[in-house]
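The instructor's notes for this session suggest beginning with a concrete chain rather than abstract definitions. Hand out the sequence below and ask the class to guess, before any prediction is shown, which regions might be ordered.
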Amino acid sequence: MVEPLAAFASEATIRAFLDVLEEQCTAYCILSRCDDLPAQVHSDIDFMVSNEDYPRLPQILQMLARRTGFRIVRERRHEKTGHRYDLAQAEPGRISYLSPDACSDYRRHGRCWLRAEHVLAHRRRHLNGFWIPRAADQFLYYLVKRLEKQSLETVHTNELSRLFAEDPQGCADALAERLSPASAGPIAAAARSGDWQAVRAGDRTLFQEFLKSASSDSLAWRLVGNPLRLARLWLRPTGLWVAFAGSPSTASPDTKRYADCLQALFCGAQHFRAGPRFFSNLENPAQSAPQLLRGWADSLLAYFSRIRPLLTRSALVVMEDAGAHSKQPGAFARMLAAITPRPELILTSDLSTPPAAAMHDSLNRTLDLLAKRTAKALHLNHN
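After discussion, reveal the predicted structure:
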């Protein structure tokens, strides 16, 4: 059996996460499907905290990181009151990770669907000890999420029917508050009968009706706050650009395994090969001044047209065959190189080091760089 290159956190780490929420938050609840918690997790963990606790989450998750040996390696604000964090740990040959996706008031598309004050006031204990919303709030949260994604598979509708059966009146009332009788009735009927075909057929229309019923963000946030959030993504991208120095024959197998280990932390991975017209090496002492200027212009064009958009979309960008020259470049070349975008991390292929050890070192160096960058963004001390 082939060992996975990326794995979700162990039960001990998940228990530590739930424990730190219990200790440090005035109130919390797990929003995502959670019947397998804390034994295992299958994706990120959606959870809600109070408006008072929400700003403290970086410090709370740093406490978790210190207890478990994980590092906070990525953070991304996706809504006014929504923030995803990624914690990771390098193990021999793979990465283990935990991805808490936090909110106070639950927002999507700039609209508030569930108020934290209401949801947390009616939360309940799961049989496994942690807090979850009441059935009606959980039903509404899960329904909106599936309609937004236009994905109502059997596993999703079974979960919705199960939640509806726990509190039919509460779920029906929650639907009636947000939808017209002509829309709320068929959803309630589908949840009772288990036949969701009619709802699937109109999922996009239903979601648009839900959108109209949800309260929108303030005008100030829409005019200033959200544009600033998007500008921050461009100025400080959450993706990562890594270069492997060495010949293609030695770098390619390493880069693929490296990307496979880290891909779960990013929104996809893209590979590039360094070449004479794509990020040519400006430190090559054999190039003339016109060649250097042409290479510099090509590098800028390639970066802003191909690399930067990927980094802004939280992708992992891996460049192969980023060779180096032993001779000292001239002053003009050094000046151009200083104002040319460069990978954040350059890894070398050392044939004298066992492949497993080299990969473990590369992953550790990457996580350390990401942890330092994230600590700076969150104003945390990095140890």
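Then share the key points. DSSP finds 14 helices and 16 strands in the chain. Residues 6-232 form one domain.
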